[in-house]
Structure formats: structure tokens, C-alpha cells
Amino acid sequence: MQNLMNIMDCCEMLGVVNPATTYRYIKRGVWPKPIKIGGLSRWLKAECEAALEKMVGLAMADGKITKAEIKAITDAHAEIVKAERGTLEYALKAGALLQKAKDSLEHGQWRPWLSDNCPDISDRIASKYMRLASEKNQAKIKSAASPLPTTHVNISAFA
User: Fold this and answer.
1) pLDDT tens across 94-113, in order?
2) Which of 26, 61, 96, 153 could form a disulfide with 133 if both were Cys (CB 3.0 to 4.6 A apart)?
3) CB crowding 121-146: b at 16 or more within 10 Å, else e
4) Are 129 and 137 in contact (CB under 8 A)?
5) Domain check: are 92 and 151 in the same one?
6) Which residues are 69's β-sheet partners?
């Protein structure tokens, strides 16, 4: 049964935290439908790998955004979700990478790109991460973070 994957395996392969994201991909037709085995949903690993390669290929079609950068964005967001609220390092990392991705796209491509490549990150959250990572907030962050470990800084104050 090594060729079958469960929903959490799919989430890990996609780099997402919430299983609902995988089902949104299925609904959009970019992820294979599961096979039902005794009431359980299972996916063929080969089909999932092919779907992921196709998704990554589309995201990298213009050659400006690498597979590693897309993974870094989704990984940074996943760490923010998993960690306590106020984890500044990951929010800054996600913001800088999201800004790089947005800057590399043509006008009107940002929201579809974000939805396709980082489905767990809403446009509103992405904007907050990017504002947080902007140079004008760096001085505020340094002064606010100086007496405390960075994990205790409230990022909503800067977003």
C-alpha cells in the first residue's frame, strides 16, 4: 500500500496545513480525486506527484519564481500557523518572499498566483506580511523587539 496516500500525506506533499485546502484543489481540478476504499479516501501517489509537478511547472512558467521559493513561502506560513501568535521571524520571512513573488508578476497576476500557490494564505494576510516586512517597518520592529525576544512582539501592531 505504499502507492496510496491519505489526506495528511497529500497535505504534506502540497505544503499545506489544512486538509480543506487539498479538497479545494480537487474541486478546482488541479489535484486528483481520491479513491474510496472501505469508506476511506486514498490517493494514488503517482497521480499526486504528477499533479504537483504540473502545478509547480505552471507557477514557474515565467522562470522568475523558483520551486524552492514557493515552498519557502508556504513553509513560512505553515510555521506561523503552528507557532504561537506573534512569531515575528516567520512573518517577516513570509512577507519578504511574498513581496518578491508579487514584484516578479505582471499586473493582475498576483491574486491568482497567490490562490494557486499559497492557498492557505489569504490576500489580506499576504498584504499584512508584506507590510510587516517593508523597510519602513524595520525601525519600528527593532525598537519594539529590543527588550523582548522576537517571538513576543505583537505583529498586528505593524500590519
Assistant:
1) 999 999 999 999 999 999 99
2) 96
3) beeebbebbbebbeeebeeebeebee
4) no
5) yes
6) none
